[in-house]
Please model this.
Amino acid sequence: MRRTMEPMVRLRGPEEDGVEFAVQQVVAAVGIGGLLALSVGGGTRLDDDFRRFFGPVPPVVAVVVALLTGLASMRILDSRGWIRFDLGDLTVRQVAIVVIAAAALSAVAIVADFTIGFDEDVNVRWPGSLAFYAVIAVVAEAVFHLVPLAMGSLVVSTPQFDAPGRSVVSVLALVALIEAAFQVVASRAGGDALALTAFVDVHLIVIGLAQVGLFWYVGPWAMLLFRPAYYAFWHVGWGYLRLRAIF
Model:
């Protein structure tokens, strides 16, 4: 259970709570690995991919800002009593559930790729995809989940986890819809086909609900693990195969 008098994240060796240590390394690798890859440089094509999302903002700046705001948001959530379980409470079974859920939703997207068909630029080419999706994972989790959840916790009283109440459920539901709403605006601006837009919106709503569910019932680290796992299956793994075979 959550321990209010202890630090939210503790540095521990692999001999102590191996799951916790492994999760820490994955999360750290996503952020730090993205920064290191960006420092080497991804070439003109990768620069263009980043520019589609960040405009003139350098991706390194976007990652640093996202990491800082994400950490600040976690502190706010912890101080407001919104974190039920900390990193040390994660079990192997829970991590497996996160990975399986990410794989299952990735499989749904792959089926949609065969039936509806995504554009080429929905995936970034290997090996630039490693740096690109590491950066996007960090920024997306801060923007779409951690910061909105922290803001919600400031206006809603400390929840009862077994009976969260209408206000808390409303905050969680709204946060789950933010990414899908953002995609609706982006799809309309890009003139995407109706069937494709509808699938993506529904898919993102399901993902959003899954992630806020993980946040509430398993803890924020399970929520944060979901996105890099999903990106690894759908964008990096399948993206590598589809861009080689189709485009």
About this structure: Residues 18-245 form one domain.
